[in-house]
């Protein structure tokens, strides 16, 4: 990979895009999984653990994406996002469906917490571009500062890379300055090679973040997949000098998992990525576990879920 | 002479229905009453204890939600299985406590009977400890006892089976779940009891049994915020005040340790059952 100009050529037409994506080196699945497992054994204790917990809290996109979401639930989630616990700074963002963005905006006014909204026919991404655009515009007009779009996995898997590319680019144009996260739904992409291709495709099309999953498909975020995506943003930085972010989402429920991801961020992408601007956790129950482990560290005894809000 | 090499048992912890070694990899030697080596037992760490509490909390919903009748049946089944292992228990009790074989057998029989006694209580607790309250108003007011939650038990140090059964069975009878730290020097009957529990119908996680150093584990158990009650029966004397203080930090129910270990062969009363329940009172409007 030779530089920005070469990448412009790559996106000239569908044929060159395909040539580029299929020219990406194949993923050594065994090596990737072994490396992930190896990094996961690192022991993070005491002051480093407390730092990791605080950093992870600041990276949380506190998420509720249920059919049963109500304005009341979103407001209580926003209250938690503003002040997760005594002396704990706010989380990175609250992530909701577009129709609840206005509620979240009102509840988060002045807090500095971002409002992320899923869009583009979430979670399946199966609709026309027109509908997806309208969805995105509605979210942004309601006050979303970040948009989490889903790619059309059907198109990607049948090799219509150009279509996926154009969709991301169109949504990015509609977003303007609004942060765009591109959900690859790696659980449906079947192979690591596909994850690498989809990552590069999203980065080429202008996604500010690549995100693993919607949280509606299992498996969601796994360590090997996150590692692979971190490699992609690292290589992207190598080629273009730009920093792009990664957001694993779904399935990360414990502090242990979160810290393993942070170790991967540090080792695979680099220390520069250990910031909420470049790494996020899409999660709901993770926050409570982080808070619980934080109290365990500070109080010197094990904490329990009774001492934290149910959400 | 046979060339057969005997297969000796690896004594492990009982955590969430499984038999893991201690996370720390530690073991400690267990001796009989005369100081002769018996076995190496797993020496649980505070992380094993933490996992035990997680398992007990996870199992609480299902066990406390089971009908009292069902809990009674399940506990009676445990007694049936205990009966089948009488000889093994008697051997272990005799070796650990240094009592003659006949006495050990009597202690095992008493333990089985004690288990049956508590199994019979499951569906009577609500009747005895609950009430329909006479109130001055158009309300039907009633109180029901509910299990307190996860109970931390420091098992008696001397009576390795009968004592253990006498403190564990009431926890299960009320519908609570238990994290038990067994007798430090006499853990073998406890481990065998966990094997009985594992093959009975008691769901995994309802009883979690740790062997190890009581003084090392007790402070973590006493201070753990997700433990609702603490039985200090087997607590080392010099630690008792500190443990009670630590338990007060998260407002646990505390069963204080008697100054000397009681005579477990005496007929029990329902004090332990009463100590492990919370009373819920409901006021229901009646037709006006």
Which labels suit this protein?
heterodimer, A: 311 residues, alpha/beta, TIM Barrel, eight-stranded parallel sheet, 11% strand, globular, B: 288 residues, Aldehyde Dehydrogenase, Chain A, domain 1, five-stranded parallel sheet, three-stranded antiparallel sheet, 10 helices
Question: What's the quick description here?
Answer:
The complex is a heterodimer of chains A (311) and B (288). Helices cover 50% and strands 11% of the residues of chain A. Chain A has helices at 4-10, 14-23, 29-39, 46-58, 71-82, 101-108, 129-142, 153-157, 161-175, 192-205, 223-240, 255-269, 286-299; strands spanning 60-63, 93-96, 114-119, 146-150, 179-183, 209-211, 245-247, 281-283.
The radius of gyration over CA of chain B amounts to 20 Å
Major β-sheet strand ordering of chain B: 7-6-5-8-9
Helix content of chain B: 40-55%
Mean pLDDT of chain A: 95
Most strands sheet of chain A: 8 strands, parallel
Helix-strand topology string of chain A: HHHHEHEHEHEHHEHEHEHEH
Strand % of chain A is 5-15%
Please tally the helical runs of chain B, counting DSSP H or I stretches of 4 or more residues: 10
CATH class of chain A: Alpha Beta
Stated plainly, the CATH topology of chain B is called Aldehyde Dehydrogenase, Chain A, domain 1
Amino- and carboxy-terminal Cα gap of chain B: 88 Å
Q: Provide the CATH architecture of chain B.
A: 3-Layer(aba) Sandwich
User: What would CATH call the architecture of chain A?
Assistant: Alpha-Beta Barrel
The CATH class of chain B, by name, is Alpha Beta
Envelope shape of chain B: globular
């Amino acid at each position: 990979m030779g530089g920005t100009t070469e990448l412009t050529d790559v996106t000239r037409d569908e044929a060159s895009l395909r040539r580029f994506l299929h020219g990406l080196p194949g993923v050594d699945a065994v090596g990737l999984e072994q490396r992930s497992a190896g990094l996961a054994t690192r022991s993070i204790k005491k002051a480093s653990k407390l730092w990791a917990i605080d950093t992870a809290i600041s990276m949380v996109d506190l998420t509720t994406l249920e059919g049963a979401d109500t304005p009341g639930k979103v407001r209580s989630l926003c209250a938690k996002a503003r002040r997760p616990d005594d002396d704990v700074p706010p989380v990175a963002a609250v992530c909701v469906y577009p129709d609840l963005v206005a509620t979240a905006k009102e509840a988060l006014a002045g807090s500095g917490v971002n409002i992320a909204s899923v869009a583009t026919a979430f979670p399946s991404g199966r609709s026309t571009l027109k509908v997806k655009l309208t969805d995105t515009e509605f979210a942004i007009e309601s006050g979303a500062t970040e948009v989490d779009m889903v790619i059309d996995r059907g198109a990607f898997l049948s090799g219509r890379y150009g279509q996926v590319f154009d969709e991301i680019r169109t949504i990015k144009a509609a977003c303007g300055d609004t942060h765009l996260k591109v959900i690859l739904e790696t659980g449906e992409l079947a192979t690591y090679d596909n994850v690498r291709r989809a990552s590069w495709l999203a980065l080429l099309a202008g996604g500010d973040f690549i995100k693993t999953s919607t949280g509606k498909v299992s498996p969601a975020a796994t360590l090997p997949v996150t590692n692979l995506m971190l490699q992609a943003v690292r290589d992207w930085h190598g080629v273009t000098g730009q920093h792009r972010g990664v957001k694993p989402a779904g399935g990360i429920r414990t502090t242990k998992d979160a810290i393993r991801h942070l170790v991967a961020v540090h080792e695979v992408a680099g220390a520069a990525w250990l910031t909420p601007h470049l790494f996020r956790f899409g999660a709901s129950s993770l926050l409570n576990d982080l808070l619980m482990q934080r109290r365990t560290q500070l109080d010197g005894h094990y904490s329990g879920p009774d001492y934290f809000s149910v959400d | 002479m046979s060339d057969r090499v005997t297969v000796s048992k690896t004594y492990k912890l009982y955590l969430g229905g499984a038999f893991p070694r201690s996370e720390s990899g530690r073991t400690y030697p267990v001796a009989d009453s005369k100081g002769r080596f018996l076995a190496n037992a797993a020496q649980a760490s505070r992380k094993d204890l933490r996992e035990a509490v997680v398992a007990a909390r996870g199992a609480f919903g299902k066990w406390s939600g089971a009908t009292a009748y069902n809990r009674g049946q399940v506990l009676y089944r445990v007694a049936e299985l205990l009966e089948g292992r009488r000889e093994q228990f008697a051997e272990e009790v005799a070796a650990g406590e240094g009592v003659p074989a006949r006495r050990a057998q009597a202690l095992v029989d008493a333990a089985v009977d004690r288990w049956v006694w508590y199994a019979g209580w499951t569906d009577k607790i609500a009747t005895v400890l609950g009430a329909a309250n006479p109130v001055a108003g158009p309300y039907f007011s009633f109180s029901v006892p509910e299990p307190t939650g996860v109970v931390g038990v420091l098992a008696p140090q001397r009576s390795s089976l009968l004592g253990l059964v006498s403190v564990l069975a009431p926890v299960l009878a009320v519908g609570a779940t238990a994290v038990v730290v067994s007798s430090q020097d006499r853990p073998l009957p406890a481990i065998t009891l966990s094997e009985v529990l594992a093959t009975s119908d008691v769901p995994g996680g309802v009883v979690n049994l740790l062997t190890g150093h009581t003084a090392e584990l007790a402070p973590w158990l006493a201070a753990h915020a997700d433990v609702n009650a603490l039985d200090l029966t087997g607590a080392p004397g010099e630690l008792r005040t500190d443990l009670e203080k630590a338990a007060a930090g998260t407002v646990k129910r505390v069963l204080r340790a008697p100054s000397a270990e009681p005579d477990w062969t005496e007929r029990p009363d329902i004090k332990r059952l009463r100590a492990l329940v919370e009373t819920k009172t409901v006021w229901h409007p009646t037709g006006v």
